Task: structure prediction
Amino acid sequence: MRVALFVTCLNDTLFPRTGRAVVRLLERLGHEVVFPEAQTCCGQMHYNTGYRREAQKLAVRFVRTFGDADAVLAPSGSCAAMVRDNYRRLGAPGSRLAEEAAALAPRVYDLSELLVDVLGVTDVGAYFPHRVTYHPTCHGLRLLKLGDRPTRLLSAVRGLDLAELDGAAECCGFGGTFAMKNEAVSAAMGSDKARHVAATGAEVLCAVDNSCLMHIGGTLDRSRSGVAVLHLAEILASTEQEPARL
Amino acid sequence: MSDSAFLGMPAFPAAARAATGDAQLRHNLRKATHTIRDKRASVVGELDDWPVLRAAGAAIKDRTLRHLDTYLVRLEESVRAAGGTVHWAADAAEANRIVTGLVQATGETEVVKVKSMATQEIELNEALAEAGITAFETDLAELIVQLGDDHPSHILVPAIHRNRAEIREIFLRTMRDWGVPAPDDLTDDPRALAEAARVHLREKFLRAKVGVSGANFAVADTGTMVVLESEGNGRMCLTLPETLISVVGIEKIVPTWSDLEVFLQLLPRSSTGERMNPYTSTWTGVTPGDGPQDFHLVLLDNGRTDVLADTVGRQALRCIRCSACLNICPVYERAGGHAYGSVYPGPIGAILTPQLRGTSSELDASLPYASSLCGACYEVCPVAIDIPEVLVHLREQVVDGPGHRAEKAAMAAAGWVLDDEKRLGAAQRAASGARGLVPHTLPGPGSAWTDTRDVPEIPAESFRQWWRRRNKGRDKGGAE
Ligand code: SF4
Result:
């Protein structure tokens, strides 16, 4: 299958290794990845902070860039949810944006959905001999309703020991500009999440969103917990020959 | 909406920061919210038709709100036909004037109160006090708040921020000023505390000639008021006095008893985590020889028709004040109810208060941002209010207003960079070039991040640079 990668602006700029892992994984599974270079950002930060006009512009660009794709992969739960759930609110009912967004929405996937639902695999042939715990992220859990797809994928990884996370459904406190505007509450939520993560004894915290991982990881690093954070794509791309870098 | 008790409150982030530093408060809140949220989850999980009930609850409320004018008139006619009197109050001041006048007409200087959000919203107790009338709160938690000269911090459990030891101290210190004192040997055993409150309140119930209440629901067809409570204290106030005055928001209407049935299932499971509500009192006008012989219904607008005019925001009027959204909210759990500066705290407060009061004060403008948009509130709301959607909608109103110059400039700049892939590429190359220069702690606004979290390292190469390089290599037939 030919998959159009929407790498997301955050991954593009700060976490390119996640994008590279996605490419390696999908090509290993025999699929073709294309990267439409006109892509930039889904507009989530602007939308969530109340900057509707800026978000609208970015939504129009996204729909124009990806409108023809058979499948769009966004390796970020919150960006996939932004396109699928919020674009319909950005265009006035009956407007071109609203119609094109509605038509595109069903073809936009998070990585676990693409693998399990579209490509029909749960064992991707990965090898990752570490104890891992999984944080479901709010958008993945409540908007995309990913359910057990990510943990099914992780459980099928050879050598991986999956540890259950206490209070998993609770928000990590990132919330985009929330982390800056309400930094005290955000940090309190982050430190509770980090405490639960550390209590699992895992070496690695995994999620489908690098924004949440940046927040929890930054908190874990500050407390010198020794727990690393990795996007799901990087664990699934990991093999004996090319192990993921911790 | 009245707000004098909260004037001068700092904006949400500052008040919340103070609360996160209060270890006792955080412990009290964590324990209480987690207990109720777990109970709710287990009793909601028992019903396989919960999603259908929830959809029905939302649909009934929406339909009623769409035809509110019709149902309000129907309610007025039914209450009148049943021997009650109906008053209309456009705002808090008018409602307070009406209630004060009604109490004065009885010649009494005391009233007993059933727990009610509407009377707190209009600050009725304060208005009555100015007219020389003392209002006694009779709900146990409201009593604790009143005796402690405090503000409620939760819709359902107003004293949720207090623990047993604090309650004992408040009872010992202040009960004597209000009536029957607490016994000197009072312990902090819940039973002993409840007994002290019972003895204290019993005297009030037997003496009071006037009761004041709100209502959870008002059935338009029959003119019936409905109050749900757990203690039976409300029922004392609703049955013993000679005069009963109920202040009810205009959105509390349900058309018929069969509509009510849906909410009698939704509300107890969502609020207290009970399958059935312990004390459900209903009354229809006046029944000769039984209960209050003089009944007044004060229908309160106080900003509600403005909320109704907003097509996105109006869903907030579906709220049945169950408080499930507060109990599940990770922000409420850490910030506490007082930080919201309103009688409506938590997620529902964050969308209701700015709609009722506007966003002109710094506090009210900060409320739509008092959420990480995690969506847990929407998931538990028994009438499916999409709280994150309304929060974002209200943020748009704040952004369209004055102020926030620095943020607007930064957002516009980010929008400009992101609106062109070449500009984004250039910005990424600039960031990579300066990567060695980024310190681990940032000055100014960046410190909001680095005070508690490390910053990620900027990579040498963006994804799009890597992609280009790889494709070039491939065109030449080389490896990646
Ligand atoms: S918004 Fe929903 S969950 Fe919150 S108090 Fe109202 S009805 Fe309950």
